[in-house]
Amino acid sequence: MTGNRPVQVRPAGRHALLVELPDAERTGAFHAELLRRRAAGTLPPVEEIVPGARTVLLDGVPHPDDLARRITGWDMPARASDEGPAVEIPIRYDGPDLDRVAALWQVGVDEVGARHSSYTYRVAFCGFAPGFGYLTGLPEALHVPRHDTPRTRVPAGAVGLAGPYSAVYPRVTPGGWQLIGTMPDPAPLWDLTRDEPALLTPGTRVRFVAESGTP
Amino acid sequence: MTATLTVVRPGALTTVQDCGRRGHAHLGVPRSGALDAAAMALANRLLGNAPDAAVLETTLTGCALCPDRAVTVVVGGAPCPVTVDASPAAWGVPVHVPAGAVLDAGGATAGVRSYVAVAGGIAVEPVLGSRSTDLLSGLGPAQLRSGDVLPLGSAAPHSVPADLAPWPAPPAALTLPLRPGPRADWFTPAALRTLISATYRVSQHSNRIGLRTEGPPLERVRTGELPSEGMVLGAVQVPPDGRPVVFLHDHPTTGGYPVIGVVPEAALAAAAQAAPGTPVRFTLR
Q1: Out of the domains of life, which is the source (chain A) (predicted)?
Q2: At the topology level of CATH, where does B174-284 sit?
């Protein structure tokens, strides 16, 4: 096994590398290092840098073998807790799965929002739909399972939990996450009129700010 | 005033496609773009269009269009009957369509996807640098409906048009070269042998997201979930049923099933033209 190596590079076709890290923290640190090197102009040409849960995909790489050799020699500092852009997401804790999550967390229903909004999250990666960010930061004791049968329609703005992740649905899709709340105006999550259409890009820090009032 | 095309018959699935969106996979935005990129490029070259001029991609049943000015078009890709105001016209070479006439690209007689390129290109507004319809995430123009009006670009030639070019025939049998990885180690050694020795068939459930196959299931040595990771175009993903799916241009940018190998982009044009039932062989390279 190669479990002790900090970085394992896996082949992914003729022009891509899948770089595997031991955990989410070091995946984030490696992603941040890639962005630093790209901004400094010291990263060889890479068309797409796509973080995952434990990996970063480098796609559109003219010479993947050369890049793989370089990466294994990199010194990657841990990411500072205040590194990266920060956003606040207003949320009403009014989701249809509040009772179920309260039971799983063994707290009162009113306590779910207080707990959920007390942590700082970070976008680990995106996928599923444009602007859908997978937010890490919930302690392991609060991880909850998905629904066995996904809902056929989750409204835009719904805030859900699944496993280690929280997320806000940018648009109406099917979905199997436990819905605990609503972002009242989800339009900023994905706005094609902005230079950066996604509000929640990988590496962004997120705080949920509870709004009072009924939907 | 720009020239326009009105959609008379949208067909089962006709979309606007160009070379697709690059550089946004980390936001969950698929690449999209013409599935048979070689056919799109050849059709554009026959018109003197820029190589990335947007075209229409039809699926199995073709489409019919009516320009408000005289235009030159090429219908290529999957072979199909072509008519202008119900009179037979040529396939695979430039055709003159008078103002107000109806160009009909009929059902594919072989293959799956025909392309209708128009001098000047389809000039819908680009989204994130591309005019392509992305069916998975709903970016770009919706699939064509009857009565849609599409703007055309100016027909000033980008290059001297080619006057004749060979169109590849749709594959009677599909051979897909494969490089193992990144998750080939999630499968038994027997699974990789099965993948390169068995004959699979193109499933009728294939679409722009993936070429689904039917055949012997591939057995895994590692069970459980794979944490979500980035997926490349051409990735051969194996869901729990064990049947390989070759990811095409509208594939999701991250996914949670292991990828046993990757088919190079150049081989995917043939995959886009392989009709349901076509035998598929994977070869190691």
Answers
A1: Bacteria
A2: Cyclophilin (2.40.100)
